[in-house]
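Predict both folds.
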Amino acid sequence: MRKQNIYFMVLIILMTLLINSCTCWQYRKTNESSIDAANIDFMDINRKAIVKDFILFAKNSIEYYKTPVNETGGQGSFIGWVISPALLYTRYAKYIVVKTKKDELSITGTGYVIGVDGITCVKLTLQVWPLNYSIIINN
């Protein structure tokens, strides 16, 4: 009698594990689309934060370009402009000055959320000229 109880308990445990694993698999399959939607929301938030920082960088760098050298500016050049160390790594991205020329500045912002390609992180590029700037979404 005792041996039958043990077999019965083992059978109950195995059935419980089987049912739980099937339930988890089914839950994961039904929620894949909502996970994708959540990732799109995070991508959007990440991009908007990078764009906000890029606008700040563009305004600061154009101001630097217009400011005379004796007032710590570039006096007609972007050469010498740097991103503040406090803003190189933010909550949403890391920033790198890719190109600095006399009349052009290029910055790359790489987010921490996977982008549209599903492999690499969100990435944007800021290009600044003396009178305007553009933001390009790379991923």
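Second protein follows, with its predicted structure tokens after the sequence.
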Amino acid sequence: MLPDSANRQDIHAQVYSAVSQLRGSKLERDYIYSVLQHPGLKGQVMVTLRGQSLPKDIPTQQHSQTFEPGRILRSRAEIVTMAQIPGERYRYRDRRPDELHQWLTDLVGRHGFALKDAVWGNPKRSRIKRAGTQFSVPSLSFTMTLEVVNPVDAASAWLNGIGRKKGYGFGMMEDISDE
């Protein structure tokens, strides 16, 4: 549990600092995380980490995933939905509702999955404010039914996340097959 903040950069810094302190060094970020914000948490957020080598002081739960061709998986992920404006190097726009299904199909397809079904919640905007710059990113929480097509790419996506801004807690896929 970490203190909540309206600035996603603050949460990013807290996660990075906590993992670095427990490791005793600032190694390259080899983990992803997701953030659960809920009114019942009273000013705190719950952070879930995933990585190949997390510090031993972080409570862990061993959970292995297998990615065999044809396996059906139910997953949830909060994914940044911004699109780069053609011809503009650093300019982005929100994806339109009519673009979302095809974009999500293409995104998971590049990561070894075929999209069978998807539903998404209301759009959110997260503020990121760091030295000299401030911006916000649009995101949606997607619940997806996926079929494994390429096991190597699917396993990599599971470990490393999908989409943009993973360093700010977006893109971590969670298995909800048992829900």
